[in-house]
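Give me the fold.
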Amino acid sequence: MMYIEERKQLAEICRLLYDRNLVTACDGNISMRIGEDRIIITPSRMNKGMLKPEDMIIVDFDGSTVEGGGKASSEFPMHRAIYQGRPEVNAIVHTHPVYATAFALAGKNIPDNYLIEAKVILGPTALAEYGTPGTTEMVEVIAPHIGRVNSILLKNHGAVTYGRDIVDAYNKMDVLEAIAKTIIMSKLVGDPQIISEEKLAKLKG
């Protein structure tokens, strides 16, 4: 079996996402770039909290299976588009986290001027129009955003984050959901207060 350590790492992240309620049952898909022409990705229709290293699928950039007995996630085209558009990205996390998806369902983006984590860890988030999962339509709706952000809300669907490695991509999803939850909860208490541009600028230093 090829890429044993990468398989283990992907399985560990899947379990972590499940334990953190960032993914439920069979939804979502996670992948890592391996070298220049290989992707290791979660299989289709399998509970992410129960995945084992040997369940992961190795595919090439044409989508052909290199190793694995199952079927690669139908969202592979979305993953490929991100990798092709961002050579420095080596991992992608796509899930349907409740609070971030609530923003996407309402057709609203998550502001980046409420919490410092948005600037320091996550960066700006884009809101993509609805695209049918697993189709070229999904690729078309995220295409305008791939190059300028590391997190995208998918209308009526979920969210996708990506980064230099699988931990970075996971951290972005974790922070995205935490920010979304905090904003929604704060609205129950009162009106959330923004951080001024002047104060946010200090974070960049």
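The longest strand covers residues 29-34.
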